[in-house]
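Service request form, structural biology core

Requester: graduate student, group of Dr. S.
Request type: structure prediction, single chain
Budget code: on file
Notes: please return the result as structure tokens.

Sequence provided:
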Amino acid sequence: MRVRDSLNFILADKNFQLLEDKLNQDTMFHILNIQRREVSHSAFVAWLLNPVASHGMNHRPLKSLLNQVCGLIMRTLDNHIIENHNFIDIIALDAIDFNAVQVEAEFVVDNNRRIDILVSVTQENDVKIPILIIEYKVEAKETNNQTVHYVKWVKNQPRYMGKYEPLHLYIVPDNNDNSMPAEPFVIMDYDNFDQWLSHLSNYEKTTQAKFIINEFRNCLMKQQYMFDENTTNLVDALKKEYENELKTLLKIKFSELDSDIKYSLRIHQDALEKLDIYISGKASKGVSEFIKFFKVNLQAQISNEQWKFNSSSGCIAAYNTVFERELMSIDLELGKKIYLQYWMERPSRQKATLKVEITGGGVKYKDIKLQLANSLKKNFDKDDEVVIGKEEVGIIVSLKINLPGVHDLATDNIENVNKYNMEITYAIIKFVKYFDENMVKHWIENDMKRVVQKYNIKKDTAIEMTRTYLENRIETNED
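Core staff response, request fulfilled:
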């Protein structure tokens, strides 16, 4: 089939046009190039939480978030942590005078460290009593032990009503266990954070606030590491329908094409890249040439029936559909939150790391993620190159590929990909062979089920114990 005919068939498809429409929906955060700027994100969240801000919702967003954080503490922190701290609870929150509340972004503490958002109650003589501390992340990792320092700072601050410690909240895209905040921070992943943002639709607000909140939510959903189900479904449908046409386009040499075809390819470039059709010579917009190469080679080595890739060209994320299906059949809640995935970020510091991990769901599901990960790790023997993850993390296995000279976006180019072609191909073949799909499928259908069933029995017991403890605590306070 001719290149022109293949391209025309794809461009004429309604699903391709829907895909382009979706990709072209840049938010104001993208237009201003602040879609991944933490300072801008936290400043916006601080604005929403400020009772006197111009959004018109008064203290309702703040009270709503405070209540959710209290719920996270009761559901996710271990009993011994709750017993060692006297956190503000919902009953105490009901007594807050929101006219005395102050919300500050980038609040400076010792050694010029800055708390992303500090919510405090201001009393006489301008004494600030912290009631909520927020660390906001656009990337899913803790840096420089920030939260450790914030916890130490809090210990020297006055307490609300003379006895209550402030709430500590860590907002992060996803908890992949690579870095955890210090206790007693609780994690709110983007799924739960978006639910809070959605809840704000229940409140009367200004037209400006309504628009910006909607833009912010769309910005969060377009982050490259997040699965967008609608986009993924469109991509899957197009790949299935136009398998032969896509094979034709994969073989093209851009320099040999007619000028009109070149022009059309560039116009539709973003959507075509979701279909793994890449055009050399593109001015970089954050697309990784190494990720492209890794992704194509990895897809060729693993079962398309067992793994479903995201549509990003800036990272690799492919989740196991057998794991998802079996887990949902046992526990619907866990099946919607936790997943087994291949993961790789773009190369940096002269190396790339390909790994398989059990992740998702935030700190609430930490115990079951570790139990599942540790159960699966037991099936692998030691290897000179492939590393088995430690017991306290959700990483199953990982392989580091050394790429001397590849430091950043500028060196993430076609020339270096060609230079390390053989090393990457060998590494992927070795890694996929080591992470045997048949063995993993057998584990999913047998050991995984037993781990989840055992976990659910313990979870039900722990919930009942926590409920009894909280009821006794309330009765003691009333006395």
